[in-house]
Amino acid sequence: MSMFERLGEKVERFKQEAVDAREESAEFSCRNCDTGIHHERETCPECGSSEIERVSTDPESESERDAESE
């Protein structure tokens, strides 16, 4: 395997890891197709749905919301 093939594989692996990390860091999510969205939008860029919600990554705020809804 040549040096350029190995480098290409490393670049592809890095690119996939970056895409995965970006998806995990999305602030919003489409309830219709579950696409991660990084900026507040009116509609989903994938399916066009207006079912956009903020993703909560703070476990404490989730428990506070649950307590408020009871």
Give the arrangement of secondary structure elements:
Blueprint: H1 3-24, E1 28-30, E2 36-37, E3 52-54, H2 59-69
Antiparallel strand pairs: 1-2, 1-3
Question: Overview of this structure, please?
Answer:
There is one protein chain. Helix content is 47%, strand content 11%. The chain is mainly alpha-helical. The mean pLDDT is 81. It starts with a helix and ends with a helix. It has one domain. The chain is elongated. A 3-stranded antiparallel sheet has the order 2-1-3, with no helix packed on it.
Give the key terms.
three-stranded antiparallel β-sheet; 2 helices
The string of secondary-structure elements, in order, is HEEEH
Gross geometry: elongated
Number of strands: 3
Low-confidence stretches: none
Average pLDDT level = 81
Biggest β-sheet: strands ordered side by side in the sheet:
2-1-3
β-sheet strand percentage: 5-15%
Distance between the termini: 61 Å
Provide the domain count: 1
Please compute the radius of gyration using only Cα atoms.
18 Å
Major sheet attributes: 3 strands, antiparallel
The number of helical segments is: 2
Regarding quaternary structure, what we see is: single chain
In helices, the fraction of residues equals 40-55%
Briefly note the structural class of the backbone. mainly alpha
Offer a concise description of the structure.
By secondary structure, this protein is mainly α.
